[in-house]
Amino acid sequence: MDEGGLAERIPILRMGEFLLVTIQVDMHDRLAIRLQEELTQRISATRAKGVLIDITALDIVDSFIGRILGNIAQLSRVLDAQTVVVGMQPAVAITLVELGLPLPGIRTALNLERGIALLHAALGTSPPAESRHDRRGE
Amino acid sequence: MGSTGENRLLTVLIENRQKLVDDWIEEQSALKVWQNGLIGRAELTEQCTEFVQLLSGTLNSDYSADFKTAAWDALRDFLRDIVASRLEQGFTPMAIATFVLSFKQPLFENLRRAYGEDAGALVETIWSSTALIDKLALWTTEVFQLEREAVITRQQQEMLELSTPVVQLWRGILALPLVGTLDSSRTQEVMESLLQQIVETSAQFVIIDITGVPTVDTQVAQYLLKTVAAARLMGTECIISGIRPQIAQTIIHLGLDLSSVTTKAVLADAFAVALARSNLKICPASDHG
C-alpha cells in the first residue's frame, strides 16, 4: 500500500459549501500532515464554510493525530470555516481523554447527518429540506 | 490395591456395608448436625450408602494414596455435590465436615469387631482409615471454601452490572443513574458501557444522575469529568444532576472545574434541559386535542 507514501492520500470531497474528509485508513504522521496541508489549500480555494471530518472508521488515535485534528480546527477557523469531527468511536474518545487531549474548541457530532445539521446551525444557514423537517419534528 | 491396611478396610466395607450405613446414620442422628430437619432420613440414607459404595469402589480400583488421581474422581465429585447442596441449605463448614468425620465411629467399631484379636492389624487398619477419612473431610472444607468464593465473585459481578444501568428516557436522551460508592474500576466500567450505549442509541444527551452516590473523591470526580469529555468528543452533551451539598463542597474544595458541564439539581430539571435543547416539550394530553 505505502508506495513511497506518495500514492496514499485522503480524499477531500466537496459537498455544497462544505468539505468532507472521510478517514478510512490508519493515520500515520506524514499522512496527517499532508491532509492538514491539502485541506488548508482546498478551504481557501473553494471558500468552504465548513469542514466535516468523518473518523468513524478510525480505531486508533495517538497524541500526534489528536493534535493534528486540533490544528485543523484552528486553521480552518482562521480561514473562516467551521470544523466538525464526526463518528468518533468510544475507544478513541477514551484514549484522547486519557492522553489529556480533550480537543477543546472542536465541534463533534455522532454521525455525518448530525454534523451537517450542526454546521448549518453554527453558520445560521438553512439545512436541506429533509433535515429541517427532522429537526422540527413536524 | 493399596497396602494391607486398605485391604482390610475394603473387606470390612464390603462385608458390613448395610450395618455400617445403619450405624453411621444413628451416629449422625445422635450428633444432631442435621437436627433442623434440612435433610430427610431417606436422603441421608441414600447419601451414606452411596458414600460407602464409592469408597469401596475407590479402594477396589487402582487405588493410590494420592488424592488427585483419577481413582478418586467419583468420590471427589460426590462430595462436591454434597457440599454444594449442604451449602445451599445453610450448613456450617463444621457440620459439613462432620458428615464425613462421623463415619469414623461406626467404621472403627466394625473394624474392632473384625480384627479385635490382632492388635497390630487393627491399629494399622485404623491408621490408614483415619488418614483416608481425614483427607475426605478436608476436601469437603476446601470445596466449601471454593464454592463460597465462587458465590461471592458472582455476586460482585452481578452487583457491578446491576448498579450501572444506562436507561433511555427518550429518543436521543440517555440517563445513567449512579447508585452506591464509586471506585475507580466501577467508574471505568460505567464510562465504557455509557460510551457504547451512546453509539448504539445515537444519543445526543446523557444525564448522569449521582443522587445515589454518597461520596465522591478526587479520582472519581476526575473520572466523571473524563467521561463527560469523552462523550463530548463523540458529539454527545452530558448533564450532571443530583449533586448533594456535601459533594458540591468536596468538588469546590478539590478545585475541580465543572464550568464546562451543565449541572442541575434534580434529574427532572436535567431532563427538561435535554428536551428543550432537542426542540421537544412536554404538554398536557388535552392540548393535543
From TrEMBL, chain A:
PANTHER family per UniProt: RSBT ANTAGONIST PROTEIN RSBS, RSBT ANTAGONIST PROTEIN RSBS-RELATED
InterPro entries given in the database record: Bact_StressResp_Reg, STAS_dom, STAS_dom_sf
Protein name: Anti-sigma-factor antagonist
Residues annotated as domain STAS: 8-119
TrEMBL record, chain B:
Pfam family, one: RsbRD_N
Keywords on record: Phosphoprotein
Residue ranges of domain STAS in the record: 163-274
Family annotation (PROSITE patterns): STAS
Coiled-coil residue windows: none
Gene3D superfamilies: STAS domain
The protein, known as: Anti-sigma-factor antagonist
InterPro entries registered for this protein in UniProt: Bact_StressResp_Reg (IPR051932), RsbRD_N_dom (IPR025751), STAS_dom (IPR002645), STAS_dom_sf (IPR036513)
